[in-house]
Structure formats: structure tokens, C-alpha cells
Amino acid sequence: MAQEDIFKKLIAHCKEYGFVFQSSEIYDGLGAVYDYGQNGVELKNNIKKYWWDSMVMLHENVVGLDSAIFMHPTIWKASGHVDAFNDPLIDNKDSKKRYRADVLIEEQLAKFEEKMDKEVAKAQKRFGDAFDEKQFRETNPRVLANQQKWDELHARFSKALNDNNLAELKQIIEDQEIVCPISGSRNWTDVRQFNLMFGTEMGSTADGALKVYLRPETAQGIFVNYLNVQKTGRMKIPFGIAQIGKAFRNEIVARQFIFRMREFEQMEMQFFVRPGSELEWFDKWKQTRMKWHQALGFGEENYRFHEHEKLAHYANAAVDVEYKFPFGFKEVEGIHSRTDFDLSQHQEFSGKKIQYYDPELEKSYVPFVVETSIGVDRMFLQIMSASYFEEELEAANGKKDTRVVLKLPAPLAPIKLAVMPLIKKDGLPEKAREIIDDLKFDFNCQYDEKDSIGKRYRRQDAIGTPFCATVDHQTLEDATVTIRHRDTMLQERVAIADLKGIIASQVNFKALFAKLK
């Protein structure tokens, strides 16, 4: 099945099983804004818990913060967002659709990569174990031709970005004959910059209203509070401040569901270090964060680092952790060495001294900062993409059967245990309720009595429930239930008294944290 078709099925699955809904759907929706349903919010909360606990509980020198969405407008002037928080946009005159010029060119680069990968895949199939991919890529004429096109486009694109040359970006789009996905035409406007911040007014009267912004990132709330946290927490450098919160960007949205939204949630940690040590800490956090992603068990080959072509105005090093989505490798986390830019700017614009006194060096300085930043929604999509499977099974009558299953890591699953009475009489529902009442303070449990037991299993597979416990007449005799494992579909008879221990061993975050050492 084509990757695009899989992605469409995943989007439909998210709605059908209560993970993600289009916001304001009964009013025909609001573009690039989504709501999380009953299962989606549980999965999202578990993702946040995995991140928060791995940051704050596992690191003695990282603490948390929850800063306000509204901030003094001068903060955004100091941070550079008022003047420099822009995307290069281009419109197609026929479809009237707007696109990011850099994304259109990146997609063209990806097409050259796909052509090379297809040649490699065909050769690998032809030569089998004797295939030498490195030698093939260095000698095959078709691969070399596409690699040359990629290299030339990449060099030209990087220079245009770094020079902020909007005319050259348009020229690249024209030279590469890039068409609008909607109209199929190459009738483009000039490229221009578009500020992504949402503005509003704060105040009771029009004359006295203050122009404020919905924050486009959560990091600045950490920077302006770093000294408050350091002093009240008696923190010593190096130390970090972690935060989870909403941010808002007036994005020109790609057609990739919740991958890029106008209202989204970030998980960010700013790590304050001595000047001169920032690149060493950058490398450490780079490896630490990759290990965090790979601990989920979705395959190391599906992750890679991507070095930035153009550094932000505040950075001296930047890298993305990318995951192989159905629509290609895309960023799930950014790690940046932000230097002392933010703190120095806030010190200058506020007129307040926000330096740290280092007792070991016996001097004060503005710390340097290493940042790790994940979009919760993007992480949610990555986990759903990696967990979605359609499996062909042998039915009892010899016919083929198909099940859709979300193989979510058990600690992240919305529902940990579904308890099902075999029939809705003879005291079985009451016994099932009794089991749930005993376990519901330890795990998120669900009672399910509707439809046949087979249909109920399929429903729980589709929402990623790792365990189902079936209550039958034998349960009333010997206090045992049949427990079914989601991934293997194996069933075993266990004592009700052992249920808690069996489930806890699989759904506890300790198993994930052990991989981070």
C-alpha cells in the first residue's frame, strides 16, 4: 500500500476511534486547528508524562516551570520575533493557494533522494546479499546524475536562505519547474516575508489597549524567569528549566494533519551552562534526546539527525531529530545551542542585570543556553504513525481476516486494561465491575460488554489497549480470568490477584526509563 494511502487511513482512524477531531467541525471546521478526543487526550498526557518525568525526575539539576501565555510585548522585540520571525511565502495565482517557498524546494530535494533510493532498492533486490550499496551509489550513472542535481540545488538553496535572498528562492522554484499541487501550474507570485505571530490587544479601552502577542514559543517564559528559578531553587550552573505549554503561530499550513498547526503544544527544556562549554553540552543533549526517542522501540533506522542549513539568528549550532513518517523524514525535535543571545537581549531591553554569579570562578556572567524542543502534537503523530498496523489473520473457517492494531508502547497506551464479561448475565458483569473497581486507581481501565467477544477484542486493538481480561463462569468458581495480549493475541488463564502485577510490569514508565541510562 502506498505511504500516502496509509497516512489517509491513519487520519480516518484518529477520528473513528476518538483520538483527534477537526476543531469546530459542526461549523465546517477551522483550518489547521484540531481537538483531541477521549483516547487522544490520554495518549497525549502519557507522552507529556514520559517527557516530563525523564527531564525533571531523572535529572537532579532540571526543574519545571509554567509561564503565562501573555507576556510583555517588549519581550518579543528583544527576542527578535517582531523583526525576524518570518517565513518566505509564495502564492500560486491560479489556485490562490499560499506555500512556504523553502518547503517547496525541500520537497524537490526529497524527490531526487527518492529517485536515488529507488535505484538502490532495485539493485539490492537484483543482487541480494552480494549487493554493496556504497559502491553502487558511487558508480551507478543514474544515481550519480541525481546526486549531482541534488548537490547543485542544495548548494544554491542554502546560499539563498543564508543570504535571505527572496528573489533567488523564486528563481530556484521557476528553474526547477516546481508546480502548485492544486492547480498544476507554475504561475507564481514573488516570494515575500510573512510574520507568524498572532497579535491582539490587552486593556479595557481602545485608547488604553496594549498591543500584545500570543506567544509563538514557550522558551522566552523560561528566559525571563531563569534568575527567579536559580535564586529560589539555589540552582548551580549547569542547570535546566523544563516547561510544557501552548504556543501559537499563523502558519501557512502543509497538508499533513496535525504535523503543523496554528495552536500547538511544546515540550521545551533550556539548559544554562558556562560560556565556552555550550558545544560540549549540545553534543551531550543531542545524544540523550536521540536515546529518548529510540527507547520507544520504533526502530533505530527510522531516526536520523539533520543539521540545519541556516542557523537561526540566536544559534551557533542546531540539529533536528527526524523520524521517517509516511510522508518522509521530518523533524520531531530540535536541539539548539542558543548562545547567550536571549539572556543578553533581555538584560539590554529590560535594563535589569540578569547575570549568574559563579562561586567556583568567583565572577558573574550571562550563561549560555542549550535548548531541546519537541512539539507534543508532532510527537503524537509520530507515535501514531509508528504504531498503526493492518495485519492479515487466519480465521477459524479458513478465510482471511484483517485486524487494525495500534502497537503503542504499553506505558503510553490510553487504556491499559479492558475488562469484559463474556455475557451480560449470571453475575459476570458485576464481577467485571468489581475487578475494575479494584484496579482503576492503578491503571486507566475500561469496561466493555457490547458486541461479541471477538469484536470487542478488535475494538481494543484499534485503540491500542495492551491487555484484555475476560470474565466467564469459571471466574466465579476459581477467581481467574483469561488475559489476552494485544501484540501476540496470546491468551492465558491467570488469577485475578495476579492481574495488577502482570499489567504493572508492562505499563510502568520504569521500563522506558531504564533504557535511558
From TrEMBL:
Keywords: Aminoacyl-tRNA synthetase, ATP-binding, Cytoplasm, Ligase, Nucleotide-binding, Protein biosynthesis
Keyword Nucleus: no
Gene Ontology cellular component terms for the protein in this record: cytoplasm; extracellular exosome; microvesicle
Location, primary (coarse class): cytoplasm
Annotated EC: 6.1.1.14
Function according to Swiss-Prot or TrEMBL: Catalyzes the attachment of glycine to tRNA(Gly).
Assembly and oligomerization: Homodimer.
Protein name: Glycine--tRNA ligase
Record lineage: Bacteria, Pseudomonadati, Bacteroidota, Bacteroidia, Marinilabiliales
